[in-house]
Amino acid sequence: MPRVADGSIPGGPRHVALIMDGNGRWAQQRGLPRTMGHREGVRALKRTIQAAPDFGIECLTVFGFSTENWSRPAEEVSDLMGLVRTYVANDLKRLERAGVRLRVLGRRTGLPDDIAAIVERAEQTTAHNDRFLLQVAFNYGGRADIVDAARKHLDRVLAGETGEALTEDILGAGLSTVGAPPVDVIVRTSGEQRLSNFLLWEAAYAELIYQNVLWPDYGPEALADVVTQYRNRDRRFGGVESATARVVG
Ligand code: IPE
Ligand code: IPE
Ligand code: MG
Questions:
Q1: How far apart are CA 228 and CA 27, in angstroms?
Q2: If you ran DSSP here, which 8-state letter would residue 195 be given?
Q3: pTM over the 0.90 mark
Q4: Ligand 3 centre and the CA of 185: distance in Å?
Q5: Where are the domains of the chain?
Q6: Long-range contacts of residues 38-45, Cβ cutoff 8 Å, at least 24 apart
Q7: Which CATH architecture group holds 15-141+182-248?
Q8: Which of 67, 69, 84, 140 to mutate to test the pocket of ligand 2 (most atoms within 8 A of CB)?
Q9: What sections of the chain are H helices per DSSP?
Q10: Category of 43 on φ-ψ map: left (φ > 0), alpha (ψ -120 to 50) or beta
Q11: Which ligand is nearest to the Cα of residue 23, counting in written order?
């Protein structure tokens, strides 16, 4: 298979970001509590992670909990926290064995102490893995992430460590996604067509795909549809020539 200069499979996508939406509606349609939708959503996430490398995807970023989701009923919030505990407890070993590096995007402050510790441990345990990058956005907001990145630079300026003016590169290096491949495509399930504060900076030239499937029904078929749609897009990045014209061998 020919490869582009950076080593990836031509056509991509290398990095898929998923707004996993529709758990509540999935449960509602079955007369079940919303919680059951979230539980089924975790199963869908596992299927999707497992299938991703088969499509040449190197990185998945999934939206698990937004800075705005704290406004949900306390019981639902606590259930979502509980799912993180069980997911990491049950799956960390498997992710580790599969060569997955897990990274959690978002503010640690505000998370229950035990969740912050679990996240820290999961990141440390998998830090050396480089086969696949799984980023889970949890207590994440795109605006908060941009503000935090700008503050990092400002703090360095105020401390006298640098006098450099803020640039896109400096800001990008302060984001929680630093080092991940560029986001090729942002997918939202459930039919809603908005970003809801997800990856605002990284979305600049990402393709947007909206799928009508509710997240608990997601899996390899839906992901295959994303890959096909993506490969039929013409990414011009403001220019006139297709980026795929750069295939070298
Ligand atoms: C997405 O499903 C999961 C989270 C936001 C945690 P929702 O819970 O938003 O489901 P709907 O949108 O109410 O159907
Ligand atoms: C976005 O979905 C957050 C996650 C998927 C975790 P929401 O369901 O919270 O977004 P809105 O309220 O429909 O914009
Ligand atoms: Mg929703």
A1: 29
A2: -
A3: yes
A4: 19
A5: 15-141+182-248
A6: 38/76, 38/79, 38/80, 38/83, 39/83, 40/216, 41/215, 41/216, 42/83, 42/87, 43/216, 44/20, 44/215, 44/216, 44/217, 44/218, 44/219, 45/20, 45/218
A7: 3-Layer(aba) Sandwich (3.40)
A8: 69
A9: 23-29, 34-51, 74-97, 113-126, 142-158, 168-173, 220-231
A10: alpha
A11: 1
**Positive or negative: CA dihedral 19, 20, 21, 24:** negative
Given the CA of residue 68, which atom of ligand 2 is nearest to it?
9
Tens of pLDDT along 76-103?
999 999 999 999 999 999 999 999 999 9
Structure-token pair, residue 153:
């630079």
> Mind listing the pLDDT tens digit for each residue in 212-238?
999 999 999 999 999 999 999 999 999
Q: What residue type is assigned to position 132 of the chain?
A: F
Distance 80 CA to ligand 3 centre (A): 13
Q: What are phi and psi of 225, to 5 degrees?
A: -65, -40
Tokens of 89: 């407890």
Q: Are 106 and 73 in contact (CB under 8 A)?
A: no
